[in-house]
Amino acid sequence: MLKNYFKIAWRTIIRHKGYAFINISGLSVGMAACLLIFVVVKYELSFETFRPNHKDIYHVVTRETWEDGVAYNPGVPAPTPDALRLYFPQAKIAAINKAYGSLISIPSQHSGGLAAEKKFTENQGIVFMEPQFFDIFQTHWLAGSPSVLAQPNRVVLDKSTADKYFGDWKNAMGRSLKMDNLLNLQVAGIIEDAKPNTDLAFKVMVSFINLKRHASSYNYNYDWKSVNSDHYVFMGLPARESMDKMNAQLKIFSEKNIVDPGKARKIEFLQPLAAMHFDTRMGYPLGDHMTDKSTIRTLSLVAILIVIMASINFINLSTAQSVSRSKEVGIRKVLGSSRGLLVGQVMGETAIIVAGALILAVTLAKLLLPALKELASIPDAVPLVDTSSILFLGIVIILVILLSGIYPAMIVSGFKPVLALKNKITASSIGGVPLRRVLVVAQFGISQLLIISTLIALKQMNFVNDADLGFDKEAILVIPGYTDSVSLQKMESFKARLLQNPDVRAVSFMSDVPSSDNNRGSRFYFDHSYKENTHLTFLKLADADYIQTFGLHLLAGRNYMPGDTAKEVVVNETFLKKLGIRDPAAAIGKTVQLGKNPLWLPIVGVVKDFRTNSLREDIKALVIAPRKTFESTVAIKIAPPHLSKTVAAIQSLWENTYPDYDYNGFFFEDSIALFYKQENQLALVYKIFSFIAIFLSCLGLYGLVSFMVVQRTREIGVRKVLGASVHSIVYLLSKEFMILIGLSFMIALPVAWYSMASWLQNFVYRTTISGWVFGLAIALTLLLAWLTIGFKAVRAALADPVKSLRNE
User: Fold this and answer.
1) CB within 8 A of 7, min separation 6: which ones?
2) 522 phi, psi to nearest 5 deg
3) What is the spatial distance between Cα 772 and Cα 99, in angstroms, rounded to a whole number?
4) Which residue pairs from 385-391 have beta carbons closer than 8 angstroms and sit at least 24 positions apart in sequence?
């Protein structure tokens, strides 16, 4: 029987090559797209779930409630882990503290350790770690044990980092390295590399006691008043311990221990380990990216819609083609074939075609996978085909066979043998026309939904990329540096030598660029009053050239005077608005007291608001002031004509001035672009899958029009003999589809508007959903559909009617 099905299916493919190409190519493209999306979704959803005890591991985070809103922080006050061990002895507690842009120097073995053989700047994966971390997280040790992190001046490396530093990890044990030209560390352990689907991929793990010994150098404050966003605490609970019960106890714990002199109410609570990768409220990911769950849902929905569209093509063409099989079905029924056997035959033929499409789909997906990995930040280690993807493809095949085959099978098996043998069955008599119309509407509705979503996403990203950020971001080179005593002494001379270059227009040393993910905040008092305020103020610490370098606009007053410590401050408009001050000039001469600093500092200037973070967030109340010991980064404004030449000169000057440090410069505008990396990726994904949707829609439409032309060949010939014009025949063949596409647009419009309006809510500053977007979507769809239909319709209209009637 299977052999017979294969024979019939093959003969059908050979006899109707055009329709077979449309069916197989449509299904293969749809399944390839679905498989690629599955790889992305599976990878993102697998973060931390590979750990056997991941359901019992939690990240302790902080919720800060103010009168004007709620803020979330991935960190906790520094004393938290020690106190948690006393309050919750049944739990395992471990702390880590992130470090940024640390310089790792590997002393040469042949120079008595006096010369640095290699230098590496590690921007991610470097932490101070308590040994208890490995009581919670199971890790394979190649050498050493967790206990080494209880000792000072010890470091643990992962295998690939040890290979990078020492050539081979087996040579690393006992070797020395230097961190930030400050810590002399001995390699005391090597662990296996972390899996790619984790945010806890640590490369350099320094014993936590070193952080406490060099607290000022790494901004570590052991008090309950400061919530440090770099200080992460993890908790391992007994298997049956309730998270809700523990959160209730943590609330009591927080209210007792975390005392804030301001009006903020700070409560610690548990975040499930597997939720870390998706909780965008926290920011500051430990890994290289975070993913919003809504993005995963969107991609999953797109995959489902693409498969449905491919199946719709198959259904439409199969039901239309069933007319040509009426004689075959009539003969089979006369010879005793049952309806069940006919259904089995059609389903078997469908299965063979789907299987062929699957082979092409996997091949196509394999070719496109490298591009997808580049787009979606998926590591090369993630395979296209594994046990889960094979299972997924099996489910997809079954669903596609059922979706594509069941209705055509029921239609074909329902033919009456007498009518079938007399050729009395037509496309309209089998009842498939209304369904085909519904399916065409559904297919083009999906296409227009994706087109509208793409246009709105692109409009928003253009709005973001072209938005007035309130500062100059062009041609500003940023070089992260260090604030050790040697570097601080070289600061002024380095700046002076930079300014000698005629292509350098301004230079500023600072703690942070104007717009970043940094949220360094402080309690404050205003105008010699100890009345509690309802909001934090955020800090940018920089020298007096900060305003000039980034082109900030003073609305009132002047810039603060140069100095190593804060004696005067500049504030932004939002700072004043939150205090109820509308006139910037009225704030000049008022004073502020920041954090633990007992000095009242006069406000000497007010700058126009600029974007302190991404456009997803409100502009924050801000104080700008100098503090030399925090000004580790230099920003250099360069004249555009000689950009590359100037950058090379600056790099050379840096390397000569700071020979102990690695050069790691980047352009400011590139760092701003990273804010919207995922949104730009999503917009590109929309583009790609909108194209696929249009391709599938037009492919199916071409097939239906081709079949219609064949079915109406005689009618077209008669109409031409009676004087019908080419225009009228093209109109006859296309008008129904144009109406169906218009109807699909009316259905897609409200769905697209609602879904994209919800997506835009992720941005505090967002574009509007303009009417032209919908007009362009329907115009584009009608144009492509008409071109698809018109090509075949015009050929039919221009055909010689004599040949058409003779063939009939």
Assistant:
1) none
2) -155, 145
3) 48
4) 388/42, 389/35, 389/38, 389/39, 389/42
**In terms of DSSP bridges, do strands 666-667 and 476-480 run parallel, antiparallel, or are they unpaired?**
antiparallel
SS3 738: helix
Q: pLDDT category, 337, cuts 50, 70, 90?
A: low
d(CA 96, CA 231): 6
Structure tokens at 186: 């001995």
Could you give the 3-state DSSP secondary structure of residue 301? helix
317/707 Cα distance (integer angstroms): 8
Within 13 A of 356's CA, how many CA atoms are on the CB side?
16
Q: Encoding tokens for residue 277? A: 């990768």
Q: DSSP code of 553?
A: -
Task: Please give the residue that has the higher pLDDT: either 335 or 14.
Answer: 14
User: Which residue bears the tokens 């995922």?
Assistant: 678
> Which residues, at least 6 apart from 783, have a Cβ–Cβ distance to it below 8 Å?
none
Q: Which residue in 665, 808, 703 sits closest to 25, CA to CA?
A: 703
At 233, phi and psi to the nearest 5? -125, 135
The pLDDT value given to residue 770: 86
pLDDT at 113: 47
pLDDT interval class at 287 (50, 70, 90): confident
Cα(604)–Cα(596) distance, integer angstroms: 21
Q: Is 139 helix (H, G, I), strand (E, B) or coil?
A: coil
pLDDT of 409 over the 80 cut: no
CB hemisphere CA count around 659 (13 angstroms): 4
Q: Which residue has the tokens 């750990």?
A: 51
DSSP 158-193: EHHHHHHHHSSGGGTTT-EEEETTTEEEEEEEEEPP
Report which of 691, 347, 636 is spatially closest to residue 501, judged by C-alpha positions.
636
What pTM, to 2 d.p., does this model score?
A: 0.79
**CA 544 to CA 548: how far, in whole Å?**
8
Distance (Å, rounded) from C-alpha 803 to C-alpha 808?
Answer: 9
Which spans in 167-265 are helix H? 209-213, 243-257
How far is residue 808's CA from residue 806's CA, in Å, rounded to a whole number?
5
Integer distance in angstroms from the first to the last C-alpha of the chain? Answer: 35
CA–CA separation, 78 vs 225, rounded Å?
9
Best CA proximity match to 516, nearest among 421, 631, 620: 620
**Cα separations in angstroms, 332 against 12, 341, 412, 427, 607:** 16, 10, 11, 20, 86
Packing angle between helix 771-798 and helix 432-466, nearest 10 degrees?
Answer: 140
> Using CA atoms, how far apart are residues 185 and 176, in angstroms rounded to an integer?
6
**Scanning the structure block, which residue is given the tokens 């594509």?**
404
Which residues, in sequence order, are bridge partners of residue 184?
178
The two beta strands, 601-607 and 537-541, are: unpaired
**What pLDDT, in 10s, does the model give residues 296-321?**
888 888 888 888 888 887 777 766 66
Radius of gyration of the chain (CA): 34
Asked if residue 292 lies in contact with residue 15, where contact means CB atoms within 8 angstroms, the answer is no
SS3 306: helix
What is the amino acid identity at position 664? N
Q: How far is residue 297 from each of residues 44, 46, 232, 553, 676, measured CA to CA in Å? A: 11, 15, 29, 42, 19
Distance CA 715, CA 797 (A): 11
- What phi and psi values does residue 225 have, to the nearest 5 degrees? -80, -25
669: left (phi over 0), alpha (psi -120 to 50) or beta: alpha
Report the DSSP beta bridge partners of residue 222: none
* Residue 353 burial by Cβ neighbours in a 10 Å radius (0-12, 13-18, 19+): buried
| Cβ-based neighbours of 139, under 8 Å, separated by 6 or more | 191, 192
Instruction: List the structure tokens of 628.
Output: 């030399």
List the one residue out of 542, 533, 536 whose CA is nearest residue 566: 542
Provide the pairing of β-strand 537-541 with 622-625: parallel
Q: b/e map of 50-63 (b: 16 or more CB within 10 Å)? A: ebeeeebbbbbbbb
